[in-house]
Amino acid sequence: MTDTPTQLFIGGSWLDAADGATMPVDDPATGEIIARVADAGAKDARLAEAAAVQAQEEWARTAPRARSEILRRAYEIILERTDELAHLMTAEMGKPLTEARGEVAYAAEFFRWFSEEAVRIDGGGGILPDGRNRMLLSRRPVGPCLLITPWNFPLAMGTRKIGPAIAAGCTMILKPAPQTPLSSLALAAILKEAGLPDGVLNVVTTSRAGEVCEPLLRGGRIRKLSFTGSTNVGRLLLAQSAEAVVRTSMELGGNAPFVVFEDADLDKAVDGAMLAKMRNMGEACTAANRFFVHHSVAEEFGRRLAERMGALVVGPGTQDGVDVGPLIDRTGRAKVEELVADAVERGAQVLVGGRAPEGPGCFYPPTVLTDVDSGSRLMDTEIFGPVAAILTFDDEDEVIRRANDTPWGLVGYVFTEGLDRALRVSERLEVGMVGLNTGLVSNPAAPFGGVKQSGLGREGGRVGIDEFLEYQYLAVPVR
To answer: Which among 199, 188, 238 is positioned nearest to 49, based on CA atoms?
Structure first.
């Protein structure tokens, strides 16, 4: 950890916070402080904004191929340092090293993807219907951006936003979550090494998010906000962005339904459930939250899932053989404990897990609940933990209605062997993404995002760069 930067990254330089403030980074497996990083305030935010604004014009004129090659070099450096980055990530947020290595590969792929998209930005043209003018369309960067990332995928959520911004020709201020700043600072060092010009990326670590972000959004020089986090915070940022009409994209909360029909292949369904529920200890917006299982297979599905969940090894992510690391902090664990207790009080049965272990760290065991009452709090709250809550259903229309009965609409999972039903149900689910007989939907080449209160816009895929580009229409008289 000694080589990992701990200062702010502004204008290509590593700087202490203007007032000298620092904040701790804790290991959730032990509760011990593993580093102290600069804790930025308003003065630091203004300095980062000035650096991004100053660099914008020249960066926008940089050749697409040059931007592409920087991203490609950064992709290669990330892969070369997989083990180092994985250990860093596990130390600050707890996931097992196997998962951390997987995230490093996932994060790097966003840079490779957008390195290829950088050279495919095009416009269009033609004679307008009245025949008087030719229309020339060009696309140009939206301008300086504020990127706000969460703690659960600290490296990948950074590259998913930084990649398209670099490809489009935008400068940036990145504000990572205070729980996991080290991965973002390491990423900034890699991009500097890869040749990214000073001021294009600025990283501001802070525990004072309101003091840093609100003036940036209201000031008028930041032209784009990309945020991943909770719906409640997203609403606040949207309101702050309105004053200067800042363009926004929001990847917010989820409440994913996981629907198992009577004709489902239960081996596939349980495998899918393990992926959709246990990726990142359940701390993912795509995590399956509500398991709707047809009554004819519910008992068998629950038994198999509990057996698989109970076999997982819980412990520090750095230890060999560990499948489930700690939750991010004690607040996160307390939330999971309260949600499970509420469900049990309402009649839910615990098939496995359900009680936090004694000792240090923020551990919670994989848990399966059956006979869950639909009024339980965990039915309308992101659990963000390793808890699978099973409800039964009898009828297709009924389960679709119940699955859609939520203000969120990020992702849904459907397990059935019938093609007609698969397409019909997928089309009726009010979600931005569907996993059909699979528990994993995330891919850098696919558009990620939701509907309703799960967000605005899409990240990744061919449309991911669109969030960072504006159209300009040029009318040329026909002579």
So the answer is: 199
Report how far residue 201's alpha carbon sits from residue 48's, in angstroms, rounded to the nearest whole number.
Answer: 9
Domains of the chain, start order: 8-252+454-475 (3.40.605.10), 256-443 (3.40.309.10)
> Which is the catalytic residue, given 285, 362, 459, 467?
285
Of 117, 251, 283, 459, which residue is the catalytic one?
A: 251
Residues whose CB is less than 8 angstroms from the CB of residue 303 and which lie 6 or more positions away in sequence, other chains included:
351
* Separation between Cα atoms, residue 85 and residue 156, nearest integer Å: 11
- Angle between helical axes of 181-193 and 64-80 (0-180°, round to 10): 120
User: 182-228 pLDDT, tens per residue?
Assistant: 999 999 999 999 999 999 999 999 999 999 999 999 999 999 999 99
Say if residues 164 and 243 touch (Cβ distance below 8 Å).
Answer: no
Coil/strand/helix, residue 391: strand
Strand partners, 387: 367
251 given a catalytic annotation: yes
How much helix, strand and coil, in percent to the nearest 5, is found in the chain? 40, 20, 35
Would residue 195 be called left, alpha or beta, if left means φ above 0 and alpha means ψ between -120 and 50 degrees?
left
d(CA 76, CA 347) in angstroms, rounded, equals 52
